[in-house]
Amino acid sequence: MIKVAVCGANGKMGKEVVRAVTNADDMELTAKIDIVDGEFSSIEEAHKSKDIDVLIDFTQPKSIYENAKYCLSNGIKIVVGTTGLKDEQIKELEDLSNKNKVACFIAPNFSTGAVLMMMFAKTAAKYFNNAEIIEFHHNQKKDAPSGTAIKTAQMMAESNADFTVGNCPETETIEGSRGGNSYNNIHIHSVRMPGYMASQEVLFGSSGQTLSIRHDSTNRECYMPGILMAVRYLVDKGGFTYGLDNIL
Length: 248
Prior knowledge:
The chain is an alpha/beta fold and 248 residues long. The chain contains seven helices and eleven strands. The protein has helices at 12-23, 43-49, 61-73, 87-100, 112-124, 147-157, 224-237, and strands at residues 2-7, 27-33, 54-57, 77-80, 104-106, 130-137, 180-181, 187-192, 198-206, 209-217, 240-242. Strands 2-1-3-4-5-11 form a six-stranded parallel beta sheet, sandwiched between helices. β9 (198-206) and β10 (209-217) form a beta hairpin. The longest helix has 14 residues, at 87-100.
């Protein structure tokens, strides 16, 4: 049995993860960690009294980096579902994972449909020189743009060097109107509004045609198969992995 701890266990995502782990035949939930009414208030506290093979983290952007460093420095494999990590932080965690030979899996999105959307966008990017991303989330999401949008832009940028070919010189009369200019000039627009959970649309255009690739998450259950897949992958394969697309 894989001994699993969940950090952020009392949050909306955490509760779903706890349920999924509990129902998995090959996993045992050994610790529920949360600063609000958790069985344990910290990873360190849980680690002192419980065996933990893999920790699944769905906490806050401000805490995930330190949580991951603690796990990778103390022999605990970690699956990171919290977004908000900077590129340099991800690189540091990769280096720490490799140095200490402790497996780490970071994914901006664990929905298989969302990951397929990202993979399709990467393929389409080979054939379009103009593209933008619009991502929609509930108004309690603290980071923008979403990790999914950032990862999508990174993947698209591997296929094309510039996504504003032929655009005229622009002037924003209201700052931010064109969104954030990310990798290889892919503009990302973040919407935060009640009624959404998590959606993303990638727009492509060329002379005489447009292409839209969209994914919508309507409940949090859609992430659970991908999370359990990542846990099993860490135990079987180890190493550092960034993105569910690497194991689909």
